[in-house]
## 1
Amino acid sequence: MKRIELNREGYYDRWNPDHLNELHSLNQLAEGQDCILHEDSHMRLKVFGMEPYERIPFRVLQHKFTLVCLTGGTAITRSCKGAIDLLIFERGETVTRSIESAAMVNDLQNIGEDQMIVALIEYLRPVTYGEWVDGARISTPSTPAK
């Protein structure tokens, strides 16, 4: 993924007033209306399909996550800190981010001419070796599961 900074953090003068109003009225506990494919105590898998120029509203992320672009495409994301970034994905590219503060608040807008499909994997808590998950024991790479 290529990331091009369009606006630095802390500068909101280039922002659309509607986006600023949405951000200011955001309920910090809101998760959005997402298509959740799977969720358990360790992870949550969501998929978003965006038509050309469609935008996913601001959402709160509180856990480490991986974003997988299944189709490739070009998008803009805005952060609650004022940054605006252009994101250019090749098909299958992934980005993993750890949340450094209490939460991360961003939107995502497909600015390409084709549909863009992304999967979001949120890691709700780490899995430890030797732990049972959905009927299977997690083993270290050198110790096969019994």
## 2
Amino acid sequence: MVNKNVFKHSLLVSNIFDPLTHDTKTLEKLYDDLSKPLRYQSIETRLIRDEHLINKFKSIKSKNQWNTTYWITGEISRAKLNPSSMDETLRVKAVNEIKRMIDLASLTKCDFIGIASGPCEDENKRYDQIDQFQKTILEILEYIQEKSYSMKVVFEPLDVFAHKKNVLGKTDEVYEFLNRFPKDIMKANQLSICWDSAHFALNEEEFNYSINKIAPYISRVHFADAILDKDNEAYGDWHRNFDQKGFMNEHVASSILRQIIKTKVHQEEIYVAVEIREHDASNVWNLEEYSYRFVESAIRGAYNK
């Protein structure tokens, strides 16, 4: 019998509600408002640093039993740090900063810390950088264990040549990378991936092949759209709205989730979110409603065919 409780609603707060996330008081009210419908099982957001908001969010999270992911990819990038840098001094600096972020994340009993592999510094040294990223992940996992945090690590494979130009993104390389780690780490889901439709599309990958190969490692799915025409000025990963110019729609979204189910080797719980970045504060709640309904339709469609 097919388990129809695999997919859980997640909300990318820092994308959908971006205009409301840059002021502490506004953000506090936002988390309060989001807790009232009780319809999300997961919240994905930026690291919380304000002491008052840490205490407030911890209380809201506990009440709502939100599975919480802090994505630190942007902060690491803005600090000009690279967790896969060939410069060992810079890589260690990145690791130390990630450890500080993990300590902060633990104050709200964060469930996942989310990162990406970082930009490729030299195409001829891509595989050397993958080795560097492996060292970083191992050091992070060891630190979490040393501190007795219940936190897990999720990394997002990004596009490798189109826009973000990260070290890790192609399915076969992601699969090989994940299989480097001890089986007990993978069995406990201490390390997993976020499967983002835009990045795999920009990597010119066939979705079903990708899902079939790495399904056991997928703990969350981001429905994101992209313009795939290289001559179009909008080509790349821009967290754009879903329209006829891109590839993402409810049919595609359902087929992604359906393929995960078909593999029969997926994780017991997979968190699903829409990744669209809103810039207009007056439209954020309309986008939230649209995103929720989109995910709801995709989950329903995954089981109906």
## 3
Amino acid sequence: MKAIYIDTRSRLISAKAVWVTQIAPGQLIIREAVELPHIPKSAELYIVDATGYSALSSEGFVEVFHESSFNQFSIIGELLIGEGGLKPVAPREVFMIKRGYIQPLTTHENSNVDVANTAYYSLKESYKYLSNSVLIMEGQSDQTNAIDFSGEVITLAEKEDSKGNLELEFPEEHRQDIVNPISVQAADIMDEHYWQYYNDIEYSAAEKHNSLLKKVIISIIAETDEEIKFGNAFFQNLDRKVANVIVSEMVRRGASLEECLDEFEERYREKAIAILDNILNVQLIEAHHDDNNRLFTWVVPDTLIDNLRIGAKVEVETKYGIRTVTINNIFRGPNINRHKSVLGLAEEVE
């Protein structure tokens, strides 16, 4: 379906003709066709991006306002002019206006903070009750400009006309191998955490990028607390190139972790599997100190695997240095908590 997309993510508000599809009601993919020289005065369908813009340094802003805070339409994928490929994106809410038209509103011409604030708050108050208008305000601390988009504002993806037909029924997206719930989730997490790591001055760019990749993967594959702990342990030692491949595959086509591993270059796949095996399938002991019956866990090194017995005393690493403990149990399992290692036998049991 054809539409006019209004991009509000900078003070240079722009209009683009786009083709719109969906993977589910309200979950839209746009493909840019042409950037228009100006915002058309009317359109069969406007898609107004609700994101807006805010600049801390200059106090410049763009704000999109509608009386309803409930909106089921989001852009989750896009193909931009000049970028060459469809990609999933962090969901961005949009307003849908059928049979719409615009009206630039006349505001003050002088540069004055108090007058600008009066215009800003008066407009917001006026538009609280206009259900079929979307207001875009643009300016900075001493200036408020505004454009009114009026028509039929559709806020429900499945609103029906008098004959029971869907009023906004978009064609189904044919590249759901690229834009799908998992790939959109990956893109959303990348977007959510990017600035958190970007602004962290304690770490290098490579470390920040690696942390971000791990956060994306863990957030997607982990559902329980145990899986999150496993994910943190697994990806603690994960090569950045391997993490890049995993995230790229997730973002590209929503691939599962297992599918991603299957597509690695052999050297990366072997490394990832080795890390996974080292965490998932290690020999562990539970043991106690002589002055305390509380059980603690240590990893058995390769040289001692299957050579320890219950009741034996072994030397182990602790945060207080090397200590001697007595083995209560020997088992295999995941080294989720990155336990310290057994160093060697202190005394064999008879």
